[in-house]
Amino acid sequence: MDKNKEAWQTKDVILTRNHQLFIFKENYTLEEIKEKIIENFIPLCDDRECQQVCYLYKRDFEGNPCMLAKRVMKNYINITANFVKTENKYHVEKYLLSVLSLIELFLINERLKTHLTTDWGLWYWKAYHLSTVNYSSFALLNSLNEFIQNFNIFFNINEQKKYYLLVEGKTDKNLFEKVSSKYEVYFDQDKIISIGGEDSVKALRRLKFLVQDIKDQKKGIFVIVDGLNKEKIKKYKEQIEPIISRGHFKVWEKEIEDSLPLNSLYETLKEIIKIQNICDFKIFEKTYKDQGTFKKTIRKISSFKNADGLDYERIKKGISMQIEKYLDKDKNCEFKKMVKDIYKIQEEEIKNDIFLDPKSIKNPFQI
Fold first, then answer.
1. Strand ranges for the chain from DSSP E
2. Which H/E stretch holds residue 144?
3. Residue 61, CB half-sphere, CA atoms under 13 Å: how many?
4. CA 307 to chain centre
5. Is the distance from CB of 355 to CB of 258 less than 8 angstroms?
């Protein structure tokens, strides 16, 4: 699909620069994104300064967005947009932040060049040379740092997928595989592994083996386990948590289905078992509140008229395969909160990797 015509995942993406904040209200095409950036982040042409130094300056441009900054922005986007994973909101956000950083980097450089290389700049800023150079140098380095950081995350996104996720059940694996392409950045589908949860002894043995094997590959590991079996969790915490990075061991306090929003569950059940023919959402919601868990709710609903014997395991598998399309409707469900927590940990670690060990990733810049 043409990157210029398809809608990017920009809805709710927040861009901020020099106290200027813009929130995308919907998904926009690339051309629409360019216009939003010009409208909100490209400064207006300044007759007092621009006419002295800008080779594109014309008097009738005054009060319009800077022509040079627009050209830099459009050229950068034109040569890099094809590398953006437009369906991934995180990827889109980092890419657009790299655009803003580059614009600012360019503008600060132009101003500094004007101050130091033109008769007009030397005259106009005569009383402020030291403070101007000091401020501009600091701003230049800060913008360069932000550009490299955002560009590296965007450019090396496939290289960064170096984390393994170990979960217990197959339905947990299915769910994370489905949402990973939409919400997650650093888990490839072949790096999401089910350790099996029914036999806790075998699961623990397999988990220890996998953790050691992945550590030998120098890859990151996240472990997410069901917290209902307290004795099992105690053993996991004693034997697994100490040998993986801090914050990488996560415990569901309940079944994974109970961390998902009821609206999303009901919409998914419409596809799986046509639950609308059994009960409406209000009855489903009341039954869930009375029963306390999704599993008990399904068992209760299976006794309703027209239920015709519901298979909980089949439903559970169906939910893990179908629910990702409905999760956008609820931004604050427990499942998303855990995933966002994982994002933050990964992002911080990858930032550290970029600056502490530039050779660890393919980097077109010499840092």
1. 14-17, 20-23, 163-167, 192-194, 220-226, 249-252
2. helix 129-155
3. 19
4. 39
5. no
What was the pLDDT predicted at 355?
A: 37
Rounded Cα–Cα distance for residues 250 and 202 (Å): 19
Q: 273: buried, middle or exposed (CB in 10 Å: 19+, 13-18, 0-12)?
A: buried
23: three-class secondary structure by DSSP: strand
pLDDT for res 365: 34
Residues of the chain with pLDDT below 70 are 1-4, 46-63, 120-121, 124-129, 153-162, 180-190, 197-200, 228, 326-332, 350-367
Phi first, then psi, for residue 254 (nearest 5°) are -150, -175
The distance of Cα 253 from the centroid of its chain, to the nearest Å, equals 24
Mapping DSSP onto H, E and C, the string for 273-319 reads HCHHHCCCHHHHHHHHHHHCCHHHHHHHHCCCCCCCCCCHHHHHHHH
C-alpha distances in angstroms, 124 versus 120, 128, 129, 176?
6, 9, 9, 59
Dist CA 218 CA 243 (whole Å): 13
**pLDDT tens per residue across span 291-328:** 988 889 998 998 888 887 788 888 888 887 777 776 66
* Rounded CA Rg of the chain: 26
Please say whether the beta carbons of 214 and 225 come within 8 A: no
> Which residues neighbour 345 within 8 Å (Cβ) at sequence distance 6 or greater?
247, 248
Q: What angle do helix axes 67-80 and 89-117 make, rounded to 10 degrees?
A: 140
User: How remote is the C-alpha of 54 from its chain's centroid?
Assistant: 38
pLDDT in the model for residue 286: 93
